[in-house]
Model the fold of this input.
Amino acid sequence: MKQPTFEQMKEFLVKRYKHSRLYGDPGDYGPGVVHGDCVVRSTLEYITKYSAGCAASQYESATGEAVWCQIVDGEIREVDADTALLAMKKPLESQAA
Done:
């Protein structure tokens, strides 16, 4: 299955995250570490592993509502929570077998 790139995930999150929660955080995370890039990388790893997931909580989201996404044909698509949770269940069931 084709997987989305870091840049695709970053574009998806930048459009949906509060700037202050993603790239507006000036905290000291170590030399050369950018908080927003860490969030993008970890979100991409998670949705790649489970095919879907919560990309931003209600506190991080620009709209105040959680953002759920799913990988469909190598693209990241925003979906409702039920759709994402059903998509996530399939990889979990195959791991249990």
Q: What stands out?
A: The longest helix spans residues 35-50.
